[in-house]
Specification:
Layout: E1 9-13, H1 18-29, E2 34-38, E3 53-56, H2 62-69, E4 72-77, H3 89-93
Parallel strand pairs: 1-2, 1-4, 2-3
Amino acid sequence: MTDDRLQGKVLVTGAGGFLGSHVVRALVAEGRPVRVFLRRTANAEGIADLPVEWAYGDVNDAEAVSAAVEGCGSIIHCVVIPRPGPATPRRCTGSMSTGW
């Protein structure tokens, strides 16, 4: 996962999910500082043993996102929209409209 474009602390959204937890593990293995951002109800077993900072909230909550982003130099967005049905542009991009 080595990527020279990543700077500073890396915020990983959706860190409790399958993709997000693997991204977090790879970043930690590289020695990068990581802050995870996930809902309090998310299953975080896959990353519970890792030396990361924890931030909780929903990607649709601008205040929670702003607080999570504070002090981070990079963001890796791993949130998945688990609702059944066809994906619409609003559903797929709504979480990114918080001004990151």
